[in-house]
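Worked Example 4.2. Consider the chain below.
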Amino acid sequence: MKVLRRALTLIALAALTIATAAPLQAAAPRSITVATDATWPPMEMVDASKKVVGFDIDFMNAIAKEAGLSVQYKNTAWDGIFAGLGGGRYDAIISSVTITPERQKQFDFSDPYINIGQILVVPKTDARSSRIADLKGKKVGAQIGTTGAFEIKKVQGVELKNYDEIGLAFEDMAAGRIAGVVCDEPTAAHYALQKAEYKAKFKIVGKPFTQEAYGIVVKKGNKALVDQLNKGIKAVKAKKVDEQLRKKWLR
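Applying the procedure from the previous section yields the following structure tokens:
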């Protein structure tokens, strides 16, 4: 009788283990859709063949390889990107998203994967401006809903002009409609130092005036996906793949 009871107990435990494992496996997705606003070079952009490329894309692919994930990308406008995640249209966002307390109230984030600062770009003809406050009484552009826009709002006397895409802000500055643009360092370098039509017109001034950490955004409570992403980020950094990608895209 004791032998029979023991056998039945073992069978019951085995069944419980299988039943518990099934939802755990289901909670750890093997294939995910990731949204990005591909208008923020060199972090995310569309190349000549209409393919989404950039530092974030290469980094996400490296994370996926280490974490055992398959990734599909969805190019999504910035002004609706967070609502789309909340509505379940994709599983995550990688799009130069700064981790902020306000965003953390609504979403979960992976561990930081890169640190970036905001910086000011002005026309080369401007010999006096080195900070946003030097542009009082003028318009300064930024992409809507970004930390660059938030920084401009903090400065009294400076008018913020929002843009759906950061490239439009630089177009307006080239046309003389705004006096400066605030954006992330890599994007500033792309437009002011590398882009053929602008490098003779614009310059980066002053020093970065924020220290920000980028993270991958997921829906609140999706701990299984956050854990997988963090596993991938840790492995990518341990293998120094992040340094290789910095050399490729940011230098």
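Residues 2-27 form the longest helix (26 residues). The radius of gyration is 23 Å. Compare this with Example 4.1 before moving on.
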